[in-house]
Amino acid sequence: MITYIIRRLLLVPFLLFGVTVLIFGMLQFLTPVERSALYVRDIPKTSKQVDGIILKYGLDKPIHIQYWRWLVGTIDPVTGNRTGGIIYGDFGWSRTGSQPVVELIKTRFPNTLDLTLWAVAPIILVGIWLGVQAAVHHNGFIDQAGRMFSIVGTSFPTFVFGLLVLMIFYANLQWFPPGRLSTSMQAVVNAEGFRSYTSLLTIDSLLNGRFDVFIDALKHMILPILTLSYISWATFLRVTRSSMLETLRQEYVTTARAKGLSERDVIFKHARPNAMISVVTLAGFTVVGLMGGVVITETVFDYPGIGKEAAEAASQLDVVTVLGFALFNGFILIIANLVVDILYAVVDPRVRLA
Fold first, then answer.
1. pLDDT by residue (tens digit) across 175-190?
2. Measuring CA to CA, which residue among 221, 226, 229 is closest to residue 201?
3. What top-level class would CATH report for the domain 99-353?
4. What angle, rounded to 10 degrees, do the helices at 101-121 and 211-248 form?
5. Rounded to a whole number, what is the distance in angstroms from the first to the last CA of the chain?
6. What is residue 185's three-state secondary structure?
């Protein structure tokens, strides 16, 4: 097991290098003048200022020199201060956010992570349960209903379902509002007495003993969670059902039944654990998708996460911010892929020998 994990860890630096090369390659589609926006807060007023920026950061140098300066930055020979360098957290200046991209990520990502933490459990657990029930009752009413649910769920556009629940539960019933917090609760959070321990609003509200803020924050997340869950349940149901049906046809399941084991033990102790390999993959990349920012859902519900900010940056052609988010998402994907590989080895010991 340790050897398997070490082999996977050794791949991480190469994958990170590949992500940086890919993102930097995308920057090369821009001219040196356009790339100079990466290093300044305001658009230069004269061509002389632009030329100075290009010269200072070597944007007219060979590509390998540009890549190295983009990666580690440059040091001012007069002041000795370092400028730029993504490995030092300098992703550039966000024009839409009016702050450095890394600060924008620090501000928005906790909201997305908060949503992810509350959405993961209903998405994965309910999705797996639906898939198992559909497989166990193969070709029965539950299976047919599940297949219909899966077809509708996978073909239903996210923004349509989001607008539908928004009209029902907010416009008509006034139960669950969009956004992140109500005005009164936002005032509580912004007050001096409210301390931020984790930057996750639901957890910090509990740590501060403000259950009213916790309930309000949770109410604002109900509709995004419902939208994300409904779309994901359809996929989990289909994948889990297919994997369970294949597992239930294996000889060891037949042998377990022949030994007189109860059907519950056969399903939950023998069949389901061995059907989880493909589901683990789906679960891992579902979490990655949530953490990377669910653009449509956050935009529909005006949820101030990283996905909504990325959509705003793209709509205003803020290339620096979009590429910064792409680089951040690439890092998340690599780490999540590492975790999924380790979970493979936990679920199926045969994987450790690969």
1. 888 888 888 888 888 8
2. 221
3. mainly alpha
4. 60
5. 11
6. helix
